[in-house]
Every structure is written in C-alpha cells, then in structure tokens.
Amino acid sequence: MTTATFALDASDGAARVGTVTTPRGTFVTPCFMPVGTRGAVRHLDSSDLEALGAEVVLANTYHLMLRPGAATVAQLGGIHGFAGWSGQVLTDSGGYQIYSLDPQVDDDGASFTSVYDGSACRLTPAGAVAQQALIGADITMVLDVCPSAVAEPPVLREAVRRTALWARQGREAFLAHPDAAARQCQFGIVQGGVDTALRRESAERTVEVGFDGYAVGGLSVGEERPPMLAALDACIEALPGDRPRYFMGLGDPVGIVEAVARGVDMFDCVLPTRLGRHGTVLSDAGRYNLAAARHADSDEPLDPAFVDSPAGRWSRGYLRHLLATHEPTAARLVTLHNLAWVLRLMDRVRAAVRAGTLDELRAAIGRVWQ
C-alpha cells in the first residue's frame, strides 16, 4: 500500500512549509493546483503548466468518467499520458458536481443524470475509487456528501453522517483495489457547513478512518469569511499534523493567506482561470477589468510589479483590443498571467513562512484585497 507523507520544512506559528511525497515524487507546500477539469486547463496545455512551474494539477472524476470515459483515459496512458503531463495529478471524486444536479442519494451512493446525454448514472464510494484508479491520478478523493451553503442543520447533520459512512466504504474499497492501493494516495473529506461542532465531529470521524491526507470541503461556497474561518479552525484542530491538509475550492488571495496561517497546505480553484478568460486581471494592486475604457490606450503591462509575467511583453491596450474583438489569444494570455500571479503568490507565502514574516504578508494582502 502506498501513502502520502508530509515532511515539515519550516513553520511560522501554525503556518508551515513542507514537502509532500507520493508514489510519483514530491511537491512543495503550500501549493496552488490549477484546475484542469476535463484533462486540460482552459486555453492552456501541459507545456504551459510546466513553464509556469505548477507541480500539481487537478482533474475531475465526474467529467472524465462521462467524457471520454475513465476506461478510455486508462487506454490512452492514464491521465498523465492522456494529457501529456508528467507532474502530479489530484482527482476530485465528483461529489461536488453530482450534488449540483439534485441527485437521489442513499447510504450506498448517488444516482444522477449525465449533463452530457441525459443518461442515468450512479456513483458509489467504491465506484469513485474504481473510476479514479482507471484515470490514474496520484492523489484521489473519497466520495463525500457536499450540501449547499444554505443547508438547514438537519441536512448538515445527515451530510456529516453519510460522509463518514462513505469515508469508511471508500477507504475499504481503496485498500482492497490492487491498482489503487499500489500506486495512488487517497484523501478523506471533512464536511459540516459553518457549524463548528459538526465540522469538528466530521474531522474526528474522518481521521478515525485513517487517510493519506485530509481535505476541507463545502466551504468557500458563498458564506462570509468569518464563519468560514471559524469552521476551518474547528477542522484544523482535529486534523493530524503529519498529513497534508487541503482546502478544496479556495482561490482568493486573502482566503489563501488566512488558510495558510491556520496550517493548510494545498489549494485549488477555478477563480484565476475563469476570471482570466473573461478579462479580469489579478495584480499586486488588486484585480481589475481589462475591458474598462481606461485601458484602451494604456501602454502599461497587466501588472507593472510582476516583471516576469508570461504576458508581460504586451500592453494593456493591446490585450484589451484582443479581448474586445473576441480574439481567443486574449483569454489565453490573461489566463497565463493570472495563474502565474497566483503561483507567484504561493512563492511569496512560502518565503514569508520560512522568514517568519507571514503576518506582514497577511497584512499587505489584506490591505489590497479585502
């Protein structure tokens, strides 16, 4: 059986810099994982991600098992051969996507309708393991119950109960699956909304099962920041320090830095790429809309403070022109810039933790991005 190990390299309070080791190799945390839902980050390819210095990319089990099918991905070399990517891959179990489709759920799994062709589908905790084994990710996620941000307390309690049940079913299936247990790692997921007691309970029950790493799910889905951070605190208190901790779906700069300060190691989010392809730019001065008229004749780069931006050779005026004329190059270049900016933020976060100056960086990010 394989496992993911976490080695602490430096700390600043609860914040930490570490090295995660999987069967494929190592990557440094805190890290941000670009989202390549269907096997590619929108407008980019694997060589772009290599040039950006990304070490881990996220792909989605739900989408890949429906199109082109997990067996096809396996036949074409697994996700690494399929996408031509030699780095690490983490696959979400698909639970979040399934729960957006109003599925029929029972203690054995979820039944839902394909968004592609309307066919009836079913995914169980064991099925999620099998699908991710075919896809061939390095880090896989257990199937969980992801309630909405406005779920009532009884719904949250039932989600925590069923998430714990599925965690045991999924872990047993993973350990019994020869391909999964031989070459993959598996993370458990903590649920509970913003209810701190339920969050702590879910974390404790997930840790009892025993996973290679632990994820915080069901946050950063529309709730206010203070209750989100309180719920995160309740999770972290119950999670072991010798395993990686992953905040699912968090990508705003303030949220990332605040979560790192609490001991989170891994992040993913569609935010930088979704904003980028619609012309919203991330910069050291905050985010702005490139389509605004004031940029039409600007010869400034997207972010004068980011001299190594992959889009740094082009002016705002030129990129705005491409955006206004619906030239796909605009979406590609702003996406490259935004991802590079977030990865550079992670470099700055790691350097601050090593130097013991994370509080100064938190304050600086907060002044710009709050």
What can you tell me about this protein's structure?
An 8-stranded parallel β-sheet has the order 4-14-13-12-11-10-6-5. It has a 3-stranded antiparallel β-sheet with strand order 1-2-3. Strands 7-8-9 form a 3-stranded antiparallel β-sheet. Helices cover 44% and strands 20% of the residues. Helix 11 runs antiparallel to helix 15 (358-369) and helix 13 packs across helix 14. It has helices at 46-52, 61-66, 70-75, 78-83, 95-99, 125-135, 153-176, 178-183, 196-209, 225-238, 253-261, 271-277, 316-324, 328-355, 358-369, and strands spanning 5-12, 15-22, 25-29, 31-33, 56-60, 88-92, 104-106, 109-113, 120-123, 139-141, 185-190, 213-216, 245-247, 266-268, 280-283, 286-289. The protein contains 15 helices and 16 strands. The chain is globular.
Number of strands: 16
**What Rg, in angstroms, do the CA atoms define?**
20 Å
Q: What name does the CATH topology of the largest domain carry?
A: TIM Barrel
Biggest sheet character? 8 strands, parallel
Query: Class by helix and strand content?
Result: alpha/beta
CATH architecture of the largest domain: Alpha-Beta Barrel
The fraction of residues in strands falls at: 15-25%
Shape: globular
Distance between the termini: 44 Å
Number of helical stretches of at least 4 residues: 15
The CATH superfamily of the largest domain is: Queuine tRNA-ribosyltransferase-like
Q: Work out the count of structural domains.
A: 2
Which regions are unreliable across 5 or more consecutive residues at pLDDT < 50?
Answer: none
Order of strands in the sheet with most strands? 4-14-13-12-11-10-6-5
CATH class value of the largest domain: Alpha Beta
Helix content: 40-55%
Mean pLDDT: 96
